[in-house]
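Note to self: user wants both folds in one dump. Writing first protein now.
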Amino acid sequence: MKNVLITSFGSNTSIGIAKCLQNECKIIGVDINDPHLCNGYIFADIFEKIPYYTEKDDYETVLNSLVDKHKVDLIIPVHDKEIELQAKLSEEGKIKTKVAVNSLDIIKLCNSKSKINHYLSDTVNVPYQYNSKYDVKFPVILKDEEGVSSRDIFIAYKKEDMKMVSLDGKIIQQFISGGTEYTVDCFSSYITTEFYYSVRKRTETKSGMSVKSEIIDNPILGELCSKIHKKLNYVGASNIQFIIKNEIIYFIEINPRFAGGGILTYKSGYNFPLMTVNELCNSEKSNPDELAIGNKMVRYYEETFFDSSNNHIRLR
C-alpha cells in the first residue's frame, strides 16, 4: 500500500481524490487549516498542517519533513498555484519523492489565460480576446490572467459595467452566452501513449463548481482534448472546459490538475487518481474499467462535527 500525500485537503477536489484512493492507499491529507477547520479531515488516515504556499522556504521545509515522517511515495498537489510551486521544486530536485505534476513550463502556460488561448488558437476555437477596453463588442467576460478556478470573473453587458471592476491583471474576452458547458476529464499515461477521457455535461454549477452533471458520449470533444494534450506534451490528469453554442465548440480553459467534479468520472470506471498512483509508483500500465456513459451525479453537503476541544465527534 502506497503512502499518498494530498494537498489543499479542504477542497472538493482533494476530497474526491481521497475517496477514490480509500482502501488502496494510505492518505496523508495536508492543509493550511487546523483539523477542525478543514472540510476533508475525516477522509485522511493522517492529517497534517502545512504553511501557505507563498511562504516558500517554510513550505518546502515542512513538506519534506512530512515526506520523511510518513514515508510518502507520491504527492498529489491540488491548488493551482501550489502545483506551480511544486513543479518548480520538483524540477530543482528539492522534493524528496515523486510529485504528480507536469513540467513548470507546461504548468505556467496552462495557468496563463492569454498565453494558453494563443497557444491553442490553431487547434480549437477560442473566444475572441480584446487588446483594449476601448474596442469591445459587448457582452464580454473579464478574467484574471492567472485566476484560480472561476473566482473574480465579471461579465460586462455594456460600457458602464466596465467601470465597476478594476482591469488590472485582467483579460477581456468575448462572452459566449446561452451555450452548454462541458468539462472533459483527461488522462495521458505516464508510461504509454494511451489517452483516456470522460466528457461531463455540467447541468448545474454553484460558484464555478459542478453540482449536477452527467457523463455523455462526445468523441469530438475527446479528440480535441487528445490534440491539446499532445500539443502540450502533457502527461497525467487534467480537466478541460468547453462551451458549445450553435454547434460551435469554444475552448474555455485547461486546468493542469484533477477536477473538482471529476469524482463522477473516477467512480464510473476511469479512476484517474488510482491510475496515477499505479503508474508513477508501481510502473504499472493502466487498465481501467469501461467508462459508464450516462452516469449522473448530484452533490450535497455533509457535516463533520467537533467538540469544544476541537476533537472529532459523531452526533446522532
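First done. Writing the second protein, which came from a different request thread.
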Amino acid sequence: MKKIPDYLPQQVNSGRWVTAYTLFELHERLASTRFVLPVCSLGTSYDELAANVADDELLLPPLFHEAMTDDLRDAMIARIRACFPLFELSRHAAEHSDRLRVKIHDPRPLPEVAQPKVLAFSVDTAVEEHGPHLPLSTDTVQSYSVLRQLENEIDGVVAGQPVEYGHLTWGLPFGMSVDLTPELLTQYVTGYANAMLDWQRPETMYVVDVHGSIVHRKAIIAGLEQSRVERWAFRWLHEPLIEFASERGDQHAGGVETVLVEHANPALIDDRWFPSRIANIEAGQMTLEKAVELTPDLDRFISYVEETGANGIVGKIRNYETLDGAAMFETMMTVARDDVGKLLDDSPNTSQHIAGDSPWERDRI
C-alpha cells in the first residue's frame, strides 16, 4: 500500500526521488546522475520502487498502468523524454538524452482498502524547477500540506497518492521540468480517476492543485468530466492568495511559495541559498512581463536563460519579508474545508467544476 507521508520529500536535496531536489543541485549532478521513470501498478509501494535503482540514479514520479492505455503510456513516455532532464530545444539536450531510462514493472492486483467518503489528491507539476532554493515538488508539497491536514481533521477524508505530471511552460527553458500537453493530461486524469474509483470506491473525490496555469486546471477538469466519477470538486488552492501573489508580481518560486514551503517543512528549503543569499536570488529572478514576452518562442526563451543566467524564479523573492505563512496556509484551509463540507453534504448538485480565473496573463505558466 502507498505510504503518502513517507514518500513526500522530507529534506531538500536528499533521497531517491528527483522531486526532492532543486534545479541548481540537479544541474550540478547532471553529468554523474541517471534518472529512472517507473511504470507500475497503483498498489506498488514507493519503497519498493526506490529499492530497485542504482546508487547513481534518481527516480521520477511513477506512471500507473491502471490509468493508461498502451498508446497513452507510450505518448506520455515520449513527451517526458522530450522534456527531461533538459528540454529538447536546449543546445545541451542531445548530450544528456541517454540520462533517462524507463523501467516498466509488471502489473499486479491491487490490495483491498477501506472505502473513503472523500478521496483527496493533487494533480500538480511535481517535476518543475522552482529556482535555486526550492525542490521540484514545491507545488505538491503545498497541496499535500492542505490535504493531509484535511485528512487529520475530517473523518472520512483520505489523502490518496498524487498525480505528479501536468502542463507547464516556464520551467522548460531551465530544464529539470516535465510538461504534459493538455490533451495528454486530460486523458491521464480521466484514466486515473476511473482507476481510483474502481479500486478504492470513494463516495466523492476532491482534486486540488497550486500550479497557476489555467490551461493546466482546465485540462484537469476536462479529465474529471470525462471520467465515471459522479461527485467531485476541484480547487486551485492559490485562488484565495491572489492578493499576496499575482497582485504583487510574485507568480512562481518567489516569496509566496517560499513562505508556504517553509510553513510545510523548513527542511525543504536549501539554506545554502535562502535566506543567506537572498540578494543573489533576487538578482537572477525574472519579471512576469519578461516571461510573458518570451513564452511564445521557447528557442528565444532558452537563449535568454542561457545568456543571462536567470535562475528559474518568475516573481519577487523579497515578497517573503512581508508574508505570514501560517495565515496564508489557514486561508487555503478555510476554502478547502468548505469544499469538503459541501462534498460531504448529501444534498444534490454540490460538486464544483470550476477552474477559477487566471489572475495574470492567461495560459502563460
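Dump finished. Worth passing along: The first helix runs from residue 4 to 7.
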